[in-house]
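Our consortium's second objective concerns turning raw sequence data into structural hypotheses that experimental partners can test. To show how far this objective has progressed, the report includes one record in full. It was chosen at random from the queue rather than selected for favorable results. The single chain below, 256 residues long, was entered without modification.
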Amino acid sequence: MRFDYHIHTEFSYDSVIKGDALMAKAISLHYDEIAITEHLDLLPLELSNYGLPSLKKYHVYTKLLQERYPQIKLRSGIEIGDYHLLRDYAKELISGFDFFPILGSVHFLRDHTNVAIPLKKPLSNAQIRDYYENNLALVSECDIDILAHLGVYKRYYDYRPDERLVQGLIKDIFKTMIKRKIALEINLSSLRKPYRESIPEPDYLQLYQELGGELISVGSDAHLLENFGEAHLFAEQMGITLNVDRHPESEALIQG
């Protein structure tokens, strides 16, 4: 099965991909299933810079795309940035929409450092711990289907940082995900950045599986059409089969 469960299109402020072009390319590459997962970033600075997207228009847009391209399964998903910091507000916004998959991601540290963009300098050990503590809060407190790009701060590094001090924390994240039936995403955006490695790395995927983790997704995190189309190759190489369940609490949100 060919799939990609993390793609941004024209309803994300930082993407230039057009929906029709994405669907046509996915069909030409014989994809079985893809998910558009537009950004829902709700921190005050993000809202002042980019505004609040119309979820109703976005939802209609994905439904129309599916009608125009029945040859492929299209999922209407959402990526909620820093969900744990605005949980109630975010839940109210998505209530009534059947978004799937719901991705959760950490973009900001407590000191307001944005770890999803090039950093001025490497994170300190305290900042790395803070990053993973935020991920633990996210998977503990929020009803998400997939944890997106764990380790995103490393994308613009040209070396692998020492994370020995946070190994226990990373294990706690994985154990919580397993208990709450949250899938681990293998994010491929870092392959196109100086890091040149998927995040989380293969040894972390192995650790997740050794702890009992079975739910796995792969996402290109594409914002340009040229960056879509490699997820199936990576999944096949790694022997990864799509295994993502809707979080049990999501059904209540759909009902509104």
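The partners drew two points from this record. The longest strand covers residues 33-41. The CA atoms of residues 152 and 182 lie 18 Å apart. Both points have been shared with the crystallography group to help prioritize constructs.
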